[in-house]
Write a structure and sequence with these properties.
Elements lengths: L20 E6 L2 E6 L4 H7 L6 E2 L6 E2 L12 E4 L2 E4 L10 E3 L1 E2 L13 E13 L3 H12 L4 E4 L20 H4 L5 H13 L4 E4 L3 E5 L5 E5 L2 E12 L3 E3 L12 E3 H10 L7 E5 L3 H12 L3 E7 L8 H9 L4 E3 L1 E7 L6 E6 L12 E4 L2 E4 L3 E3 L2 H8 L4 E3 L9 H18 L9 H10 L18 E5 L9 H5 L5 E2 L10 E2 L8 H5 L5 E5 L8 E6 L11 E5 L5 E12 L7 E6 L10 E2 L23 E3 L4 E2 H9 L5 H8 L12 H10 L33
Parallel strand pairs: 1-7, 3-8, 9-10, 9-14, 10-11, 14-25, 16-23, 17-18, 17-23, 18-19
Antiparallel strand pairs: 1-2, 3-4, 5-6, 5-7, 12-13, 13-14, 15-24, 20-21, 21-22, 26-29, 27-28, 29-30, 30-33, 31-32, 31-34, 32-33, 35-36
Helix pairs in contact: 2-4, 2-9, 5-6, 6-7, 9-10
Length: about 700
C-alpha cells in the first residue's frame, strides 16, 4: 500500500489538510511525509509500525501513547534518540529504528539562547479545556498570565474530538464539536493582551526556589510565578497482558491523534478494550474514518461510559462484550489477532469462553491517570498552586472548562483583584458535569401513527440539554434536573428537525406520518459520510440498543442547517417499527464474527509491566512475594522504572500488582521522583552566547 493510501482523504467531519510534502529517510530509505507532523505519524502513514527492537529480549517496539508520556516510540532522529511522537518532521531528517541500546555519538548541542529568567503573576501548565478557561478569566481581569503547552496549538484533547459535546449549551458549548470548541476558546485567548501563549514548550521541572523550568523552542526559560495552575490533563493507563507491547497495541487517545489530528489511516480492523467514554468514542471515530471495529470488551457488566455513546456504536453494528477481558494480543512483529474471554464476579477469565479475531490494531481504553507530578512537587516546596481539569479529577471536558473557570476566578481573587464574584451555581454545575451518568429508565417509544413527532432514544440521566434548548416551541423539557433530567416531549411538533441535528448522542429521530400511514418517513442523524448512502437503496435499521428491526429504504438526505457535518437521513420505514428506529447498521455482521477456534494464549505472568525495560508481571510478583516493599529497591533489582518515561506507565501497574498480592499501601515506599520530568540534552540548560546582548 502506498503512503497516499494510508492517509484519510475523505472524512465526514474533517477537511483534508493543506500540506507540504517533504522527504526524509528511514533506515536509509527515502520516505515521504507531511512537514510539521509528528515523525511517528509520518511513519504510520508510510505503513511502518515497527520502530525497532528492544535490547533485552529483541521484541518489536512500536507506539503506545502518542503524547510524549512513554518512550515506546523512540527512534534515532538525526543521531539523537528521541520520542518520535513529539518531534515534528522536517525536510531531510535522517531517522533510524532503535535496535537495542542507542550509541553515544559526538554531536553538537542544540543551537539555543542562554537560559532566561521570567517573572509572571500566573503560570498555567497545560493548554487544554481547563487551562484555556482559566486563562480567559485571568486575562479578562488583566492579570499577567503565561499558558504553556507542549503541542503546536491550544486545545488539548479537544482538538481530537470530532463529536458534539454534552453538557449545557449556555455554559460549555454543548452541541458543538470538540474541535470547534478548541477554536472558540483559543480565539478568545488571542484577544487578551495580558495572556502570553507558549506552544511547543515542555515543562521540565518544578523547583524548591519556586521556579518552573520550561524548554521552549528558542531555549530554556526559568519562570517564577506568583501563582501556578496545574492543568496538565491525564495520561492513558496501560494494561498488562501477553502481547501488550506489540506494535499495533496502543492507547485510544493515540489512535485519535493519528486519525483526527493527523488524518492518518493507521488501521483496518480494530478491537477496543475498555467501555468508558474514551473507548466508546474511539470506536465511533474509527467508523467515521472508514475502519472496521470488530468489537469492544468491557470487564464490568455494563459500560462505564454514557449509554448513548454505547448505543450509538451498537446501532452501527459494533458488538460490545460486557463482562469480558482481553487475554492476549497475538503476533511476532505486530498485532495479527486478539483473544478475549468472559470473566466471573472476581474478574477472573472463565475457561472455555475464549473468542479470537483477526485484527491489526488493539486499542487500550481502560482509564486515565492524572498528570500530577508537577503539583506534587509544588506542594512539597510550598509553591502557591491550584489544580484544574483532569490533573485534579478525571472527568469530561465540559467539567474541565468549569473547573478552569472557577480556578481562574479564585486565583484572581487571591492575587488581590477586587470585586471577584464566583456565582453560587458555578460549582454546582461543575459537579453535575462530572457525573459519569445516572439511572437508566425503561424504554417506551411512543405508539403513535399520525402527525409528526420526535422520538427521544435517550433513557439515561446524563448532563445534557441541547435538545431542550434548541426547540423553537419549547416542546422538549424535563420534569427532573434541568441538565441531568431525561428529556420529555409534549405538544404539537412542527417537524423542524433541529432536535435531531443537535443531539450529541445521535439519540433523537423524527417520525413523520403526514404523507403515509403505512410507510412513514423517519429522519435519522448520520455522521459517517454521504458516500455511504444511495437513494432508493435498502438498509438495515436498528433500535435504540442496536437490535435489528428490519429494512427501510433511503428516500433522501440533507445536511442539517447550522450543523454542516450532520446528515439528516430520510428513511421510508414500515409503520410498525417507525417509532423504534434509531439508526442504520453499516457493518456487516459476517465480517466481524470471531474465528472458529480461539488462539492459544500465553501465560499471564509473561505480560510486560515496564515497557521501557521489558520487566514482566512474573518478575515483579516474584520480588514482592520475596518481601520487597521499597519501589526504589525493586527498581534497582529489575530496572522497572529506570526507563526514559520515568516510571509514568509502570508505576500504577506495580501498585496494582501489590494490591493483588494484598500488600497494605502503608507498607509500600513509592518511587523517588526524578528531578527532570522529560529527557533533555544538557545543552538546553546552558545555551550559546548571545553576542547581541
Amino acid at each position: 500500500m502506498s503512503s497516499q493510501e494510508k492517509r484519510i482523504t475523505r472524512h465526514p467531519v474533517l477537511a483534508e489538510h493543506k500540506v507540504r510534502k517533504v522527504e526524509f529517510t528511514f533506515n536509509g530509505k527515502t520516505t515521504v511525509g507531511v512537514e510539521g507532523e509528528a515523525i511517528s505519524s509520518a511513519l504510520f502513514a508510510a505503513g511502518i509500525h515497527v520502530f525497532g527492537h528492544h535490547h533485552a529480549d529483541k521484541c518489536a517496539q512500536g507506539m503506545f501513547c502518542a503524547n510524549g508520556q512513554c518512550s515506546q516510540c523512540s527512534l534515532i532522529i538525526d543521531g539523537i534518540p528521541r520520542k518520535s511522537c513529539i518531534v515534528p518532521l522536517e525536510e531531510g531528517m535522517e531517522v533510524e529504528s532503535l535496535e537495542g541500546l542507542p550509541e553515544l555519538r559526538d554531536l553538537p548541542g542544540p543551537d539555543v539562547l542562554s537560559p532566561m529568567k521570567i517573572d509572571t503573576d500566573v503560570l498555567i501548565l497545560g493548554g487544554g479545556p481547563s487551562g484555556m478557561a482559566a486563562a480567559i478569566e485571568l486575562g479578562k481581569k488583566g492579570i499577567d498570565t503565561i499558558i504553556v503547552d507542549d503541542k503546536d496549538r491550544l486545545g488539548g484533547k479537544l482538538v481530537l474530538q470530532t463529536h458534539k459535546f454534552f453538557g449545557s449549551v449556555a455554559d460549555c458549548h454543548a452541541g458543538t464539536r470538540g474541535i470547534h470548541i478548541a477554536e472558540l476558546l483559543a480565539g478568545e485567548i488571542s484577544e487578551l493582551e495580558s495572556v502570553d501563549t507558549w506552544l511547543d514548550s515542555i515543562v521540565l521541572g518544578v523547583f524548591s526556589d519556586g521556579t518552573v523550568g520550561i524548554r521552549c523552542g528558542d531555549g530554556y526559560r526559568i519562570v517564577k510565578p506568583e501563582y501556578m495552575l496545574v492543568a496538565t490533563g491525564a495520561r492513558e493507563k496501560s494494561l498488562p497482558f501477553p502481547g501488550c507491547t506489540l506494535p499495533g497495541v496502543y492507547g485510544a487517545g493515540a489512535f485519535q491523534t493519528l486519525v483526527n489530528r493527523d488524518l492518518v489511516r493507521c488501521a483496518e480492523r480494530i478491537f477496543i478494550v475498555g467501555g468508558g467514554n474514551v473507548g466508546l468514542i474511539a470506536a465511533y471515530h474509527a467508523l467515521q474514518a472508514g475502519m472496521t471495529v470488530v468489537g469492544l470488551a468491557e470487564a464490568l457488566p455494563t459500560c462505564g461510559g454514557y449509554k448513548v455513546h454505547a448505543d450509538k456504536i451498537k446501532r452501527l453494528g459494533v458488538p460490545i462484550y460486557t463482562s469480558h477481558t482481553v487475554l492476549a494480543a497475538h503476533g511476532r512483529e505486530q498485532v495479527k489477532a486478539v483473544t478475549i474471554a468472559k470473566v466471573d464476579d472476581s474478574f477472573k477469565p472463565i475457561p472455555g469462553t475464549e473468542k479470537s479475531w483477526k485484527v491489526d490494531t488493539v486499542l487500550i481504553a481502560v482509564g486515565l491517570n492524572p498528570v500530577d507530578e508537577f503539583n506534587t512537587k509544588a506542594s512539597q516546596f510550598d509553591i502557591k498552586m491550584m489544580m484544574a481539569g483532569d490533573a485534579e479529577e478525571i472527568a469530561e471536558a465540559s467539567a474541565a472548562m468549569f473547573s478552569g473557570k472557577i480556578r481562574g476566578l479564585q486565583i484572581a481573587s487571591k492575587l488581590g483583584v477586587k470585586g471577584i464574584s464566583i456565582p453560587s451555581d458555578l460549582q454546582e454545575k461543575a459537579e453535575v458535569l462530572k457525573s459519569p451518568g445516572g439511572k437508566t429508565f425503561p424504554y417506551h417509544p411512543p405508539d403513535v401513527r399520525e402527525g409528526v413527532y420526535p422520538v427521544l432514544h435517550c433513557m439515561q440521566e446524563i448532563p445534557c440539554n441541547p435538545c431542550m434548548t434548541i426547540c423553537p416551541k419549547d416542546l422538549i423539557g424535563t420534569s427532573g434536573h434541568p441538565i441531568m433530567g431525561l428529556p420529555e416531549f409534549h405538544g404539537s411538533c412542527v417537524g423542524c428537525e433541529k432536535c435531531v441535528a443537535v443531539c450529541p448522542g445521535l439519540a433523537v429521530t423524527l417520525v413523520d406520518f403526514r404523507k403515509s400511514s403505512e410507510k412513514p418517513l423517519v429522519t435519522v442523524p448520520f455522521e459517517l459520510g454521504e458516500w455511504l448512502l444511495e437513494k432508493g437503496s435498502e438498509v438495515t435499521v436498528t433500535g435504540w440498543e442496536g437490535s435489528v428491526l428490519g429494512k427501510a429504504v433511503i428516500r433522501d438526505w440533507k445536511t442539517a442547517a447550522g450543523f454542516p457535518h450532520t446528515i439528516l437521513l430520510k428513511l421510508e420505514t414500515p409503520a410498525n417499527i417507525a417509532s423504534r428506529t434509531a439508526g442504520v447498521m453499516i457493518q456487516n455482521p459476517e465480517e466481524i464474527t470471531p474465528l472458529d477456534e480461539p488462539l492459544e494464549v500465553p501465560l499471564p505472568d509473561d505480560a510486560v509491566v515496564c515497557r521501557c525495560e521489558r520487566v514482566t508481571v512474573g518478575e515483579i510478583r516474584k520480588h514482592i512475594r520475596a518481601g520487597v516493599r521499597d519501589m526504589n529497591h525493586l527498581k534497582a533489582i529489575t530496572r522497572a522504572g529506570f526507563g526514559a518515561c520515568g516510571g509514568k506507565t509502570c508505576s500504577t501497574l506495580i501498585e496494582r500488582i501489590c494490591r493483588e498480592e494484598r500488600i497494605p499501601g502503608d507498607e509500600i515506599t513509592a518511587f523517588t521522583d526524578r528531578p527532570v520530568f522529560a529527557e533533555t540534552q544538557l545543552g538546553w540548560f546552558s545555551g550559546v552566547e548571545d553576542n547581541d546582548e
